[in-house]
Design goal:
- The structure is a homotetramer.
- By secondary structure, chain A is α/β, with parallel strands linked by helices.
- The first copy, chain A, folds into two domains: about 140 residues, NAD(P)-binding Rossmann-like Domain (Rossmann fold, 3-Layer(aba) Sandwich); about 180 residues, Dihydrodipicolinate Reductase, domain 2 (2-Layer Sandwich).
- Helix content of chain A is about 35%, strand content about 30%.
- Chain A contains ten helices and 15 strands.
- In chain A, the strands form two sheets. In chain A, strands 14-13-12-11-7-10-9-8-15 form a nine-stranded mixed sheet.
- In chain A, strand 5, helix 5 and strand 6 form a beta-alpha-beta unit.
- The two termini of chain A are about 40 Å apart.
- Chains A and D meet through strand 14 of A and strand 14 of D.
Chain lengths: ~350, ~350, ~350, ~350
């Protein structure tokens, strides 16, 4: 039985507590939050769980094996390091830190102490993304030409992180999982429409060694909510609409065939192919429930999570690079160089 | 009665002939195409129209007042200049030329000779775009924050122009018409997935002095066809879905209000507002029919068309700048500087 | 403070407990269910609420003012009567009884004892239906020509009630609320595809004195879920799509105008009118929360609920008549005659 | 080369002329219409085709092999009989006649004279319906439980035929083709909202010996256009949305499994199954072009068309029965009895 503490009971914390409470082999023993009113809610819902306004109580509690940190991003580094230094396994919300330097230190600390570090990139545990990864990794799409994401809606303006950190973070983790390849360069543009606030709209392009190109359009200022990804390959193409209730993922037997046949050289050398469309049934298990089980399993068997600190670090590097490029109005940043410089 | 000749009876030429044939005060007298089989089709459909494989016949025909050029882009400059030098009014397909230098020469030639030059940016004559322009120019949207266009589908690969010239050209003309402002900078990225062919996918960001930001995502390699524009303002927001049969344009009474109230400074300073949605009825007249009438009217009364050579030139400048930026992986180009340099 | 007991903690009971728990001036004091495992769940979630497997405990508890009955339909009459006879106000799930005779007795008992009887036709408390009623009753639609509902999905087969009682029940209550008119005749057809089970698919037509015609297509055997209502009037028409996240209700300025002008008599005498579409913003309050407050208000101030026993009875009469007609393969039943006979 | 005459150049006639003109082995030689202005249009478009206001000219023209009749329904019988008696093959618009008696006489006349009689139920020649028929007849759906059609829009009020004859006619022919079974009973309801005009809205239920039930909801008075069919079977289910541009037909691997297992008898005996969805690519050939070729082939090789007079007659019988039932407010009519009585 893994005993879990949770720091932060704001927007996401309640989901963590609920899911860990329902995970076999796990038990939530303590919740910390600065706001006593939130702790009252915990007490009413979970009378057996201890509550405290001092997160240090959880660090000092020798009965706790692992701690989940669900606080604002600017406290992730400090709290995460404290958890690891207290010798406890760490579940950290995304993005894992404000800078790649911080993220790298967290990764190193966890490895040094042989503690599990899971970064909560929940999308990786959804049926939709896992099925897409299967299809892509099995080669069904052929060569992956592009990934194109539209992720916009009205509102949820953040005060201390920009829209890249809030929304494009999902695309960065999904891309890492789907492609298994890190981009070589990034070019982003975007703006903030309200002085003194973070950027609320951004367009990011990622370039890959293999020729794949990825794009994410993220905004807090759209009249309608859209969550849509297209992935185009040489053999098949995928659409993923997260707001579609029943057929989120569709695989199109559509593509372009390019011929080098010299006879056709003076004619159009591109042929089109359109075939059936197929929407696989997806499991309906809540992603967070699967992720909580996975974390407990990693802690019990000393395994690296699917969304470990290395993935979390790569995502932070992309947020950092995309934000820099955006502030340079699209200036291309080469990631390999940054890697060496670091 | 304005007598019209048409050069080029390929993809778009038949639409021009059909619409001019049905325009009051206009008459199609002659059609030129290099392919005699296409001329046979003209003869069968319009027994009274003359046909020829020599476009020079139209230039020399003193009975012709105006000539429409609907040929591949690489012949626009040569044919357009020849038409103007023959003293005839010119209707030119979009984009008006391969380079801004050529476009500028066409504009100067038309002005010198006091001839009408209309560039066929058909979207400007649709009920949807005209209604959107009315709404924006009346101030209903408040300050325009952004324009965001998704214009993708499978196929229609071009051999000699890239996807910016083929698809983003529409956004460039629509933006010019809606905003009445020329961007100061452009950053684009994109790629060609088939060696030796033009870029088939591009992401373009335009920056405006006023703070408006515009983005176009264009591709010939998407599994589904999308033609969608979002325009966000401080008071209202618009969606325009060109594939929606009945409610193409929707106006959302939605927005964000930003407060500088010092009492709220420590709290979130952004408020959300959501209200009704409204979809105006749009006229169903074919845009090209309206545009043909407008051209005839301009010729008869010596007026400048709504899509004149200046607009056409500004669009070519944007295609040129976006293509350069894309080939530099997003390198920002400042248009004012280009203007001076030119 | 109104003290409330809840009998039945199956599918709907938890929603009642949750909403009454959050209603000002109300307090859930006791929950009864035959299944002790369900009572354990209640205890964990609401430690202060008493639980029992004997519903009689609630009847005998003099501290309880009102009881909500959320059990299978076949126990509604017996339990409802027991609640009223114990002198407590009654919240009864829909349909209120298995037969109109039972429903009438419940209405009479409540009136005799001056107790509040609310039948839980939740739709009547949704923002969408209330807004539609406002629009219709204000005369904006003109004369109401028809109501047409499609309410289908896969599954949720019931063992003891048919699909009319399970799904068309919603249309019957909505129609009663929107039109304020009771139908004069009903014709229904339908079938059960599995021997020994209730009908799983039905088509019901209701005829009104005023000329309005209503139709409901209900099924447990459709591959997709649809919840859609059209209401057509002489001036405007409404669509209501309950699965649409943001624009559930749309009002179309569309219609038909019929002329008796003798000059047009030999021509088509029907003209079409199409104008703007408008989607009003709807409140996002949970309907059940509004309904719980309304019930408490009725109990406190001795008022008749909007969905009182009379409405509940009229709905049961329609279920009864439609089921009879369906079993006679569409045989028309005249409701006025039934009324008199009863 | 089959020589074809066309009587009637109103709404549908131009489509017939265009398609026959492009059919190999066919030639349109003459067009008759009472309105000389329509004949002018024919002459402009097809200078080689003869035109006349006297349909008798076509009957007397020994150079004509077959005649297509595309006139109002009330003239179908008279003109169709005249064509057959002139010894010419007959293409007749749907519905083939006003009464089943007339339809039967046309069938008998064609058979007696060994002439081809095709009734133009165009839907039967669409890729969508043909693919659905294949799937159903191959047994992929299992037992067919139901067919459910929604076919509504604003306008196109007819003066002399009701909405059953105008719209449900499509469902009747599609059902005949898909199921290969004639209903045993029909129950319909509907109304006209404008005195002195035909019924503009109707709901029709058809009952089949096999247990299949079919329903069509047809209306000229809906604010939105809908063309949607659901077909549910024991193994799979189909949706067909004719307005969807790319994925009209979807096959759902969804269903209900019914168990007679006595152990489960006290529990719910219905299980649900949901699996993948699949949208087959459909051919994009115009249905009318395929149908025109088929007619020419039938004439050349003395074959019975897929939509022959017998199918046309069965459809007219259903229109007749449904209209009678509707006028009796849903009174069930048994078709076998009608058959014998006739």
């Amino acid at each position: 039985m893994i005993k879990i503490g949770v720091i932060g009971y704001g927007y996401w914390g309640p989901n963590l507590v609920r899911n860990f409470a329902e995970t076999r082999d796990a038990k939530v023993v303590s919740v910390a939050d600065l706001d006593p009113r939130k702790l009252e809610i915990v007490q009413r819902r979970y009378p057996a769980v201890q509550v405290t306004t001092r997160f240090q109580d959880l660090l000092e509690d020798t009965g706790i094996d692992a701690i989940a940190v669900a606080t604002p991003v600017n406290s992730h580094f400090e709290l995460g390091m404290a958890v690891l230094r207290a010798g406890k396994h760490l579940w950290l919300e995304k993005p894992m830190a404000e800078t790649s330097l911080q993220a790298r230190k967290l990764v190193e600390e966890a490895e040094k102490r042989k503690l599990v570090l899971l970064v909560d990139h929940t999308f990786i545990y959804t049926g939709a993304i896992r099925r897409m990864a299967e299809i892509i990794q099995r080669g069904d799409l052929g060569r992956v030409y592009y990934y194109d994401s539209l992720r916009v809606n009205l509102g949820l303006f953040q005060r201390d992180v920009n829209v890249i950190s809030d929304l494009a973070v999902h695309d960065f983790s999904i891309l890492d999982y789907l492609l298994g390849e890190h981009p070589v360069a990034v070019s982003a543009s975007g703006t903030n429409h309200f002085p003194g606030t973070p950027e609320n709209l951004a367009f990011i392009t990622l370039f890959y060694e293999s020729g794949t190109i990825a794009h994410a359009n993220v905004s807090w200022l759209a009249p309608v909510k859209v969550r849509q990804i297209l992935v185009g390959g040489s053999k098949k193409m995928i659409t993923y609409n997260d707001l579609e209730p029943s057929e989120k993922v569709k695989i199109y037997d559509k593509g372009v065939s390019f011929t080098d046949d010299p006879k056709q050289i003076r004619e159009m050398r591109i042929g089109y192919r359109t075939g059936d469309m197929w929407a696989p049934r997806l499991p309906t298990t809540e992603a967070l429930s699967l992720e909580a089980e996975h974390f407990v399993d990693c802690v019990q068997h000393q395994k690296a999570p699917e969304t470990d600190g290395h993935l979390g670090l790569r995502v932070v590097e992309l947020i950092e690079a995309a934000t820099s490029s955006m502030r340079g109005r699209g200036e291309t940043l080469y990631l390999q160089q940054r890697e060496k410089a670091a």
